Amino acid sequence: MSASIINESIIEDVALEWLAELGYAIGHGPHMAPGEPAAERTSFTDMVMV
Question: Residue 49 to residues 2, 3, 14, 43, 45: CA-CA distances in angstroms?
Fold first, then answer.
């Protein structure tokens, strides 16, 4: 009998699916990092993305 293993990537994938179903846009983190064209904050120290 094999044991089911739940890891962070499984939880993340499910959460991203739910958010997409609710209408949220899903983006790749490095593309939204400070200094990139799609940046959503000016620094990693910014706690809130407006």
Answer: 42, 39, 23, 10, 11
